[in-house]
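Issue 218. Parser rejects a valid record. Input:
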Amino acid sequence: FTFLAVPAWAHELLDDIVCDAHQVTQLGVLTSQDAYLPVYVYRQELHDGMEPVTKDFLVIGHEKQGPYDRVASSFRFSPDGQTLIYEAVTDEKHYLMVGNEQRGPYDAVHWVGFTPNGQGLVYGAEIDAKHYVMVGSEKRGPYDWLGLISFTADGQTLIYEVQIDEQYYVIVGNKKQGPYDTGIWNFTLSSRGQGFAYVAQIDGQYYIVTNTKKLGPYASRIDDLVLSPDGQGVVYLASTGGDFYLVAGNQKTGPYDLASSLTLAPNGRALAYAANINDRNYVIKDKEKFGPYDQNVANFIFSPDSKTLAYAASINGQEYLVAGNKKWGPHDWIALFTFGADSTTLAYTATIDGSYYVMAGNKKMGPYENVGHLTFASHGPSLAYTAEINGQKYLIFGQKKLGPYDDVSADPAWPEDHPFTFASDGQTFAYQVRIDDDFKPRLFMNNEEYIGSIHNDHILYIKENKIYRKAP
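Output the parser choked on:
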């Protein structure tokens, strides 16, 4: 490939595109120091015989690869940004394209990541109803089933879940943990180091397994557990003799009639959970108790600075948003709520007389038929969300209404889970829209919408069939 050298901190032309801009379904950039090469996927209808067929092509600079029946929803880049990895499907066979190398064919490809040094590729593959884990040049397996694949937070240890001869195991590095009766639950990683925890069933009993110990047995499954940031401490809610307790090391807090929704603050120093005591519903934050409330509280969030806990609670048949010592409401129902990066700005969605509204500070936006993806920029107060108006979906950013679209998302692979991608300026953001059954990349910048994306904070957009890059 030939890299195009461009100066940083400017809008720079990278290349012309070889298709109509509206055919582009993915957009990214290969990097090498201060050189950049555009990468994109476009979808085109070809007339092969009597019936038209839709094919995907991938373009790197001026080099076109394909046609493929499909290019998987998200291509990836190596940690140094110099190698492109994507999954291509042809005649129902899956291939993993790694730079100039083609791997496969496979019946399916699962999770794709990199070894700690960034040089080796790790992924799961299915071949003739058997599953394998590819680690660099090593092929591990066969397995009857492959579950999660993950690295510890420090990137040093590979963990994955498999089934062998009707029994389940967790592979940690080169060691096998198990056997277990079923697949595991509540797999959790510490935010740093090599800590992990999960719930496993052995002979009908439930245990918590961490990187250093096994806790239990318990007669009931553990549905709530958190790890300290360093992975050394595990805290969980467990049922013993019909009562629930918060268990942290050798300490137990309780008993409660019911306890759920255990949530750890970002700094790892505060905990919150819902508890039922004598048929009354409370919120417990460390040693403080709030309530009682009409119903069990099911969702908590901490502010980014970990100082404020927010949750929706029902009081006398009305919904309120509670954050620290403040309370907003009453409303018929509160669906979504989120903090801004400053930890003081709070936005939420509420239903009033059957319509949805977005509340942010002193502002009330709406009415809408539905609201989703309530997202603040990681820097600054900018707020974006999706809204349904007269049966059509729009993206709302400040006073700007973009659309209508068939659907709006951040990633076509997980359309309900991932927020919009904001650039560091807090005003430019990327998202995906669905038009005629295809997801397309979109970028909002300088009060205008473009076909574009954000890759490692490099802003990429297409204007007059030319790809431009704005450096971070």
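Fixed in the parser; the record now loads. The chain is about 0% helix and 65% strand.
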